[in-house]
Write a structure and sequence with these properties.
The protein is an alpha+beta fold. Helix content is 37%, strand content 28%.
């Protein structure tokens, strides 16, 4: 998620994204999506609304026709027109929390401020975090070694893992910059 929803990496970054307390340790919360995405959301919602108005009469006719196939198709379209905006708005109210205290870490996923998934994990030690580089496709632009293809090189991304044992790791976050994940690991290791 860190490629889209970014965590803070410094203690004094923003007060509402980092909470430090004696009894709960440290809690990191993701930032929201950038404002440009809100513009995209508004455009999509207007488009879906106009589509809903345009097909209102044909949908009512299909439902009232008595034909079961037409009725099912009409209800599928209605559920899609209602579900699409709700799911898109859910992306804007998604939040991931990392709660770390001593050698226990907890990942909490929330949509509309309601927790829908929680996972606890025991660490080997308070600072057992690893950052790994991940690239899942061949880097063809780099292999050709042409200067004009430099901008198209795939550099992959980095993953931060919490380690509980030699074979037991939990993916905490992903990011395009190793330094930010390392700062985040160092920050969590203090608590």
């Amino acid at each position: 998620m860190g490629l889209l929803y970014i965590f803070p990496s410094k203690e004094n970054e923003l007060d509402d994204r980092i909470h430090i307390s004696d009894h709960r340790g440290i809690t990191l919360k993701t930032y929201g999506l950038p404002m440009i995405f809100w513009g995209y959301l508004a455009a999509i919602l207007v488009l879906v609304f106009v589509m809903g108005i345009a097909i209102k009469n044909p949908i009512e006719t299909m439902i009232d026709s008595g034909d079961p196939i037409n009725g099912v198709l009409a209800w599928i379209v209605l559920f899609t027109l209602i579900g699409l905006p709700l799911s898109l708005i859910g992306f804007f109210f998604f939040e991931k929390w990392i709660v770390k205290k001593e050698n226990e870490i907890q990942l909490v996923y929330k949509i509309f401020w309601v927790t829908f998934f929680k996972r606890k994990f025991k660490l080997q030690s308070e600072d057992s975090f690893e950052v790994h580089h991940h690239i899942d496709s061949p880097n063809m632009a780099k292999r050709k070694k042409k200067p004009e293809l430099r901008a198209f090189e795939n550099s992959g991304y980095f993953e931060l893992y919490a380690v509980a044992g030699p074979e037991k790791k939990l993916l905490i976050d992903r990011h395009s910059r190793r330094a930010d994940l390392q700062k985040m690991a160092n920050l969590m290791a203090k608590f």
